[in-house]
């Protein structure tokens, strides 16, 4: 237990102490926290730390009231054995020894009968702590289980950005203090990474920086914008091309910069000749004059900063759209200026050495890797999803809730219901996934274990140490992996180390150690210098140039192959017409955006978040609603070839006609009819390196009644 420099209080009804910590959730902000610990040994209020410059004392409401989640009466506190049919929710309490023996036997049986590759350890980002998130890979590699191809979140975005810049890095968000124009492209930062707004709005107050927001509905972020750019889903490539067309046409492209820093600028200029604002307007729905005005502002504001999000990449043309948008600050030459350039994510700059955490010394690339996003088709035995191997017979799951969050939910559910599939789930709550398990194991939360964190949205390494005892018999991911390893005959030095020792090893090997230094400082600013962050000595490709034309089929990206219609991808920025367009039978385009009070499927269990979000709903334009004869609060069925979901109508005029939005990932059971939102999303891989097109769905909306 780390009790480093707590702030001690002596007042009754107030915390006994306040400790530093880090938000573990999958959010680019990775806030530095101060956590109140109460007299009963549980956590109380959570505050944003003022010490760390990016957090600057601000955190989101859902984490401020984390006590509701950590001290929740429904938290899993004991291992459970399923006693009823799969999914029945009938379980009985068992001891840890029995639970671990049963999990080990489930995995060993699969290995005996179908080979090691029939076991698939499956995880994601419930906690972003390196030890607790990634340690499961050590077990995978040592046991030669099927490897995990993590594609669900970043692949369309990162492949598009990498294709241009060669690396996932960019300009420190603190430079917004010097920006003249801040474009928030495809991120609903008010909901998904509140600190972006702190810095953007500060820049506006301080020196009148303009804020532009590109989204497909009037989000709370767009409500704050000086320049709202409301487009149709999946048309960002068109808008980006028109912006660059204007830059070239009006002499606002920085030709000297392009000459020095980019490849294929002449080809781009020629190609863009036909990508006029009129052409783009017809595709994206934005009036021509709005495109012209925004493009001129980009071209005449040297310190133009693009904070590029993930949302607009969750379409079948997402990688092309990301590359197109990332090309704008290159054509404008924005990168050269303080407060100019772009940030999508800092993830490429940490240089983590994760050999000990992940057992990378034991990774055999010939062992098959299965695509996380395709868990439905995989469990259903679809040959094209099995990477040339046999069926998956056992799943060991930590840190993720695929039955709720993965696309093609009907297939996922049917797969999990297979009688010949063994499933163990290590969780904090009885999620939709845990409900389908044979064995459920109770997991700790971030204030109950030690871990280290990088961040996507700012350049800090931070440490969060154990502050309180976990409730009941909760165990950490690391402890469970190590206990399983010994039962499975898996040997690796990482299984004999404590979490703190793994942290120390990783920090030292990554050139950031030792752990004591980080514990003393709490966080370490690892930002690049100005020249490196702005790529002033060249972009990260071998030729040091930003690639305006992309050879997608040969893009270098860590993935077990290329997926989706890669051969059809346009080399130059463009509108790639591969999205799931509306048709006569499915006249609407559905976007499944994140909810402000949930984080993916997390926080759907807390009463305040439930109350603030309400029943799963559908935002629909009042004129579209009128045409369908539906009114506020009516129940509608939203249908497409993948399935049917029932939602409550919310009339909302901040949408283009023909676009509907459901903000959520609520449990299936929160929907009348029992089908969750991902029933409607597709598991076909996004080109070129997989991922799910969560915001790219054609649907029809059918009135059910009031
Ligand atoms: N409150 C909350 N915070 C979260 C999450 C959450 O679920 N809830 N999720 C976390 C995770 S895992 C991630 S990866 C990040 C993601 O955070 P963001 O980068 O913000 O990305 P998304 O959440 O996918 O979507 C953001 C916005 O993209 C818009 N969008 C959808 N399609 C398009 C399009 O075609 N074009 C444009 N321009 N916009 C489009 C959506 O309407 C939405 O407003 O947020 C994290 N933070
Ligand atoms: N329709 C739709 N679907 C989406 C998205 C969307 O925008 N729309 N977004 C997608 C994106 S970007 C992402 S990243 C995925 C995210 O999908 P997930 O990674 O599944 O995210 P969460 O729903 O937060 O689930 C994390 C789970 O981990 C558990 N957990 C947290 N900490 C720990 C721990 O220390 N140990 C263990 N054992 N468990 C822990 C939590 O209780 C929670 O149930 O969802 C994707 N799904
Ligand atoms: S804004 Fe993101 S990182 Fe910060 S506390 Fe909320 S969820 Fe955590
Ligand atoms: Mo994500």
Automatic annotation (TrEMBL):
Query: Which SUPFAM superfamilies does this entry report, sorted A to Z?
Result: ADC-like, Formate dehydrogenase/DMSO reductase, domains 1-3
Lineage, top-rank taxon, reads Bacteria
Question: One Pfam family of this protein, by short name?
Answer: Molybdop_Fe4S4
Annotated stretches, region: Disordered: 1-20
InterPro entries named among the record's database cross-references: Asp_de-COase-like_dom_sf, MoPterin_dinucl-bd_dom, Mopterin_OxRdtase, Mopterin_OxRdtase_4Fe-4S_dom, Prok_Mopterin_Oxidored, YoaE_C
Q: Which PANTHER family match?
A: OXIDOREDUCTASE YYAE-RELATED (PTHR43742:SF6), TRIMETHYLAMINE-N-OXIDE REDUCTASE (PTHR43742)
What name has this protein been given in UniProt?
Answer: Molybdopterin oxidoreductase family protein
Give the taxonomic lineage as stored in the record. Answer: Bacteria, Pseudomonadati, Pseudomonadota, Alphaproteobacteria, Hyphomicrobiales
């Amino acid at each position: 237990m780390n009790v480093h420099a707590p702030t001690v209080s002596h007042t009754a009804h107030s915390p006994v102490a306040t400790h530093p910590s880090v938000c573990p959730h999958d959010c680019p902000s990775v806030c530095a926290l101060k956590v109140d610990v109460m007299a009963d040994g549980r956590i109380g209020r959570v505050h944003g730390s003022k010490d760390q410059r990016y957090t600057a004392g601000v955190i989101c409401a859902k984490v401020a009231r984390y006590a509701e989640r950590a001290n929740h009466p429904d938290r899993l506190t004991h291992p459970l054995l399923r006693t009823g049919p799969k999914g029945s929710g009938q379980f009985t309490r068992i001891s840890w020894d029995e639970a671990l023996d049963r999990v080990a036997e489930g995995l060993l049986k699969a290995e005996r009968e179908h080979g090691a590759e029939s076991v698939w350890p499956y995880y994601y980002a419930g906690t972003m702590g390196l030890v607790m998130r990634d340690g499961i890979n050590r077990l995978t590699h040592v046991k030669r289980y099927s490897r995990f191809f993590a594609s669900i979140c970043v692949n369309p975005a990162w492949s598009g950005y990498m294709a241009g810049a060669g690396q996932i890095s960019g300009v420190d968000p603190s430079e917004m203090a010097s920006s003249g124009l801040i474009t928030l492209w495809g991120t609903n930062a008010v909901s998904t990474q509140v600190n972006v707004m702190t810095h953007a709005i500060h820049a506006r107050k301080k020196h009148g920086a303009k804020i532009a927001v590109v989204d497909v509905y009037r989000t709370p972020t767009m409500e704050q914008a000086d320049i709202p750019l409301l487009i149709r889903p999946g048309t960002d490539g068109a808008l980006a091309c028109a912006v660059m067309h204007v830059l070239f046409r009006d002499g606002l492209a920085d030709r000297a910069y392009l000459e020095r820093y980019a490849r294929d600028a002449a080809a781009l200029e020629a190609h863009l000749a036909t990508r006029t604002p009129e052409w783009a307007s017809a595709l994206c729905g934005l009036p021509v004059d709005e495109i012209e005005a925004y493009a001129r502002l980009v071209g005449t504001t040297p310190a133009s900063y693009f904070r590029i999000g993930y949302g607009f990449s969750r379409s079948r043309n997402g990688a092309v759209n990301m590359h197109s948008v990332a090309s704008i600050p290159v054509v404008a030459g924005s990168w050269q200026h303080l407060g100019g350039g772009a940030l999508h994510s800092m993830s490429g700059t940490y240089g983590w050495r994760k050999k000990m955490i992940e057992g990378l010394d034991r990774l055999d690339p010939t062992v098959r890797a299965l695509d996380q996003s395709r868990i439905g088709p995989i469990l259903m035995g679809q040959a094209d999803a099995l990477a040339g191997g046999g069926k998956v017979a056992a799943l060991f799951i930590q840190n993720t809730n695929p039955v709720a969050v993965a696309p093609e939910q009907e297939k996922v559910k049917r797969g999990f219901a297979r009688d010949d599939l063994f499933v163990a789930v290590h969780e904090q709550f009885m999620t939709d996934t845990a409900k389908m398990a044979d064995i459920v194991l109770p997991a700790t939360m971030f204030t109950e274990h030690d871990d280290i964190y990088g961040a996507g949205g700012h350049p800090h390494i931070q440490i969060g140490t154990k502050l309180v005892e976990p409730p009941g018999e909760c165990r950490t991911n690391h402890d469970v992996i190590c206990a399983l390893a010994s039962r499975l005959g898996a040997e690796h030095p990482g299984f004999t180390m404590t979490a703190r020792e793994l942290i120390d090893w990783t920090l030292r090997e990554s050139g950031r150690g030792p752990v004591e230094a980080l514990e003393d400082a709490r966080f370490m600013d690892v930002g690049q210098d100005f020249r490196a962050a702005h790529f002033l000595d060249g972009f990260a490709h071998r030729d040091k140039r930003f690639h305006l034309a992309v050879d997608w089929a040969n893009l270098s990206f860590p993935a077990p192959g290329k997926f989706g219609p890669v051969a059809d991808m346009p080399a130059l920025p463009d509108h790639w017409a591969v999205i799931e367009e509306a048709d006569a039978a499915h006249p609407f385009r559905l976007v499944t955006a994140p909810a402000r009070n949930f984080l993916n499927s997390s926080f759907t269990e807390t009463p305040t978040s439930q109350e603030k979000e309400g029943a799963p709903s559908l935002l629909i334009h009042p004129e579209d609603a009128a045409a369908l004869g539906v009114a506020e609060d009516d129940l509608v069925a939203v249908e497409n070839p993948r399935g049917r979901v029932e939602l409550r109508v919310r009339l909302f005029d901040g949408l283009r006609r023909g676009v509907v939005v459901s903000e959520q990932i609520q449990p299936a059971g929160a929907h009348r009819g029992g089908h969750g939102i991902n029933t409607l999303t597709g598991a076909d891989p996004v080109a070129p390196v997989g991922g799910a097109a969560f915001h790219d769905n054609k649907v029809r909306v059918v009135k059910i009644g009031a």
